[in-house]
Design brief:
Distance between the termini: 56 Å
Structural class: alpha+beta
Number of strands: 4
Radius of gyration: 22 Å
Mean pLDDT: 88
Shape: elongated
Oligomer: single chain
Strand order of the largest sheet: 1-2-4-3
Order of helices and strands: HHEEHHHEEHHH
Strand content: 5-15%
Helix content: 40-55%
Largest sheet: 4 strands, antiparallel
């Protein structure tokens, strides 16, 4: 897997990671030794996806220097599936969250990959082709499915279009 940030590289650069998150210069990314072991995302994204309701999150906000020290044990716990998400940031301010790749999938509502498939959930792509039984629909058919108010609104919009110069 190319482009995967190693654990030692991540541990050596924690303040810079926070600075990039603060500046909006990066999104969630995976970290690991050969395979994605964990995902790092902003605390705001974790909150927006309902993370506090889906996972036990303590009140502690881990400082970058303490996280660097704890990282080897945390990685082992993440790989074993026994670690809860870790909230970290500077000066007690929750800025980022570190969690296992399966927990990130659960946070986003993604499916687990097939057994044996290495998958970086931050790089996931989705099929966009229509399903085999799909058929095209007209605006009239869609409005009919939505009900009489949608049909009336569609007709009103069409009248406005015809009257427009």
């Amino acid at each position: 897997m190319t482009g995967l940030l190693s654990v030692p590289s991540f541990a050596a650069d924690l303040p810079a990671v926070l600075a990039r998150f603060r500046g909006g210069q990066t999104r969630a990314f995976s970290v690991g030794d050969g395979v994605p072991d964990m995902v790092v995302l902003t605390y705001d994204e974790f909150e927006d996806l309902g993370g506090e309701g889906k996972f036990p999150v303590g009140d502690e906000v881990v400082e970058p220097s303490a996280l660097a020290t704890r990282l080897p044990g945390l990685i082992a716990d993440l790989r074993a599936g026994t670690a809860a998400p870790t909230v970290w940031g500077e000066e007690g301010e929750p800025e980022a969250v570190l969690l296992s790749t399966p927990d990130y999938r659960k946070l986003r509502g993604d499916d687990e990959p097939p057994a044996g498939v290495v998958d970086d959930p931050t790089q996931r792509t989705y099929t966009t082709e229509p399903l085999p039984g799909s058929v095209p629909m007209t605006m009239d058919e869609i409005a009919a499915l939505m009900g009489p108010e949608a049909i009336e609104e569609l007709e009103r919009l069409r009248r406005e279009d015809r009257e427009a110069p």
